[in-house]
Write a structure and sequence with these properties.
The protein contains ten helices and eleven strands. It is α+β, with helices and mostly antiparallel strands. The termini are far apart. The structure holds adenosine-5'-diphosphate. Residues 272, 276-277, 280, 304, 306-307, 309, 313, 317, 322-325, 330-336, 359 line the site of adenosine-5'-diphosphate (ADP). Adenosine-5'-diphosphate binds next to α7 and α9.
Length: 376
Amino acid sequence: MGEKRRQRGKEALRERVKELSCLYGIARIVAREDVSFDETLQGIAELLPPAWQNPEKTSARITLDGRCYETPGFGLATEVLKADVALRGARRGAVEVGCSGACEDSEATFLEEEKSLIEAVAGEVAFFVERREAERDRERLNEQLRHADRLATLGILSAGVAHELNEPLGNILGYAQLAKKCPGLPEQAGKDIDRIEAASLRAREIIKNLLLFARQKTPVRRKANLNDIVSEGMCFFEARCERSGVEITRELEEGLPDVVADADQLNQALVNLVVNALQAMPSGGRLTLRTKSGDGSAALCVEDTGCGMSEEVVKKLFIPFFTTKDIGQGTGLGLPVAHGIVAAHGGWIRVDSEVGKGSTFEIRLPVSRENSEEKK
Ligand code: ADP
């Protein structure tokens, strides 16, 4: 009798040692920063079977956000013990231990201690995931700060260059216009001066974008309506669209609520999006301008049936000076400027694009308070 009890005591002790070794192994693997996220979870799954009473019949699986880390044979398990992995109250996955075939020597497949052990492991997994996610968020925030710093430096530089260029450019434009009025000007010289004028106007547009990018102009905010911005902004493009075989469709929501904005700046954002859309459709297509509202915001979509963009290009869209266009065609400032304007108005830009099919840029802005109160 005494011998039997001693034997049982020894077995129980052996089980405890196995469980503690498992938790110790998990603590060690989780503390290692050189092991990847996936390797850690796979490592934890592999530490589980040896801690159970019948390791050779036991397998384990950890699931997290739809991903799966398991040891061989889990699919064959006939009974499974499971504990949820929850982070801040939300279930994100589970730790499961499976047993294949009946386990002798015990009525229950799983011991009470094993139930506590799996709960402890699920707790460790949740703690590990939370820590890694916090590290990732911190890293992302640091990257954003570094980016903002770079942008600020670029902004100061750009503003300086833009100011310096503005004056000589004004002179070029002014004298070109004067020269055009010169009596008896040969036809060819007249055409050349037209080109000088067109190039200077384009340079002036670039400088305007540079100054906006560097936020040198104080915004003047008043109640504005995106439908008016579209109507006024698009009249400059009608002739150009007709020339290049682009059909314009307007789908403007009736009674669209106002936003509080600098209409000139919003117009610049629209111009930048429309110029891009037209450049994406060199042999014609359809340009759709749509406005809509909902959830306390008003939206303006610029949709084209042009060349579309690869994922790689989409990722870099808002980086200043990123362009895929030839010199003279693009400066890489159109979208960063549009983004800066929209962000300064408390809104955001979303892009949807498919190579060969076209792109949609959506600007969303919060509607004016008065407006939303009127609607209540
Ligand atoms: P830029 O037009 O001067 O190159 P942007 O910042 O306006 O600068 O645009 C950056 C890049 O994004 C473009 O060079 C182009 O590759 C891509 N892009 C922007 N809009 C579109 C669009 N509607 N269709 C296809 N590509 C686009």
